[in-house]
Amino acid sequence: MMEIRTPKTHKAKRVLEKRAPKLVENGKKTLILHGTKTSATLSSVLMELYRLKKGGAIKYSRRNENIRPFESGGETSLEFFSQKTDCSIFAYGSHTKKRPDNLVLGRMYDHHVYDLIEVGIDNFKSLLSFSYDKKIAPHEGSKPFICFTGEGFENVPELKQLKEVLTDLFRGEVVDNLNLTGLDRAYICSAISPTKVFLTHCAIKLKKSGSIVPRIELVEVGPSMDLVIRRNRLPNEGLRKEAMKSSKDKPKKKVKNVDQDDVLGKRGRIFIPEQEVGKTPLPDKSKGVKRERREGKLKKKKNKEEGSASKKHKESE
Amino acid sequence: DMDMETDQIYQIDVGNLLAFNPNHRFSSAPSSREELVKECVTEGTKLVQAIADTLFNLPSTETNDGPLVQLPPPTTKLPREKHLPRPKPPTKWEEFALKKGIQKRKKDKIVYDETTDKFKRRHGYDRVNDDNDIPIIEAKASDEPGEDPFAKRLDDKKKRVGKQEKNRLENLKTAAKAGALPSHVQLAVTGLPISGTKTQPKKIGKEALGDVAGLAATSTASGGKFDKKLPGEKPPKKQGKHHKYLPVVPRYGWVDEEKEQTNKVLGKLLSKHSHEILNVGKAINMYNDKKEKKKSGRSDKLKAKKDITKKKPYANKAN
After folding, report:
1. CATH number of the domain enclosing A184
2. How would DSSP label each residue in B244-259?
3. Which of B53, B81, B187, B189 is best to mutate for the A interface (most A CBs within 10 A)?
4. CA atoms within 13 A on the CB side of A141
5. Residue A256 falls within a domain, yes or no?
6. A116 assigned to some structural domain
7. Are B43 and A147 an interchain contact pair (Cβ–Cβ within 8 Å)?
8. Domain assignment of residue A110, given as a range
9. Quick check: is A198 in a domain?
10. Which ranges carry the Brix domain (chain A) (predicted)?
11. ipTM, 2 dp
């Protein structure tokens, strides 16, 4: 016995339509959660990551005991959360003796795990420890610059995957138009060794230069940390091919009030609002606004300045 | 791609504000932490500068908030978060229409009504050809005498609507099979079908559950009075006789309810129509029954009969 269920409110309908698969997708949301045990550094990493991605991230505060991303059965909770919150990237933090300060960054395709990469966090510096001029502090939700330096990102497969995951994580929404005054943050990732990446977050200062292009100056605002590659899982080829598929055609926008004809050619329709003759605004015919009155007043002023008591002065009174 | 220094070419993706420098080599023995950080930030600055060079040279439009540029589409391919929307399979009607060559025709919202010589709307209040507006239905030769044609019309409409709903459900099921269910529709399974039957299992109502819980409570020694209640469970309904006790002392200014009660009964008994209140037939029957019972004298089968012939044991033991 099946039943058709449709949303009873417009808001619910809009939410469902937002979450439906589309040609052009929304920005990926991030789910931040942690396991049974977290260290001080790890909890501040997760908190600061949430702050950097405010507006496009959801942070869970309870501990999750049954999440083990690299084990076959340990992903069900993650997939369930991803379904409920509509998040396609997750950052799972845990702290064990074997893997201290562990962060697993993963992506989902159709709410199933697509790929995983596990990093350890070293030399973490919280954003509270950086001192800078508060005026250049980046605004929440601004589109960042992302920079990768180092040959490791091209040669080492794990670093290549990490580069892709970090791009996905920091990218945010894909926009058509960008306001150049709103550019105020940059993420710098440098492959300092084949297994280590230094990540830092900087604010942008635009300085005057000779041309229209300003001179860029970066100021570290934090957080900054070293990411040490541990384990990773690449997506299988079939799934990767399917996820990378993109349709070439853009959704055709309906052009209204224009029609094409072979006989008459291209014709457009213009709609003019109804002309209410009885309701046209009439001129202001009140006494004080009349031109003669205004000019008379001006002349009165002039005569007063000259100091002569003329006939007109008496008349205008 | 931008040439910065002699053999350094950066990979720039303006659509993502992304830049990659694949040629920089970090020394395997770093001098100090600060030196390393400084080096990274300097390299980063160069990359951001490279992106900004392209960005600020794009054609921009001036708005109130600042210069707005049209970003090119991103070049780095990243995996999608959800599958591409799948094409919807044609519905039963669409297949039929395709086969027969039936074209869709756009219907007007306002239609001319010949019975009233006016333009009326097609759907909604005061519509054209409203089924409910027909005052007289002429009888045809094929009509049965006892049948109500208006009720028959309503019935037919119900059947048509039911059939349409069934067809809609079937179409949605085929769409769901192909993975192309519309985003705002969900198909839910309401009850498990009992094998062999088509009936829906009956849902137990709130009151029935409460009654059953009350029954279970009576099995306890104190009649369920001190049982722990679940949050939201209502207190048990009062068992046994429901007495309404009137106040012993009548309230000041209020009617003496006890007096009223006795007066009412008396009034009924002593009234002119008191014979009508008494059910004479029932009274006679009751009297006769009582009389017969007394006559037969304890004809209750369940009561053990006393045998006077039997001797009492230990009767002479006292002696």
Report:
1. 3.40.50.10480
2. -PPPSSPPTTS--HHH
3. B81
4. 9
5. no
6. yes
7. yes
8. 26-232
9. yes
10. 28-238
11. 0.78
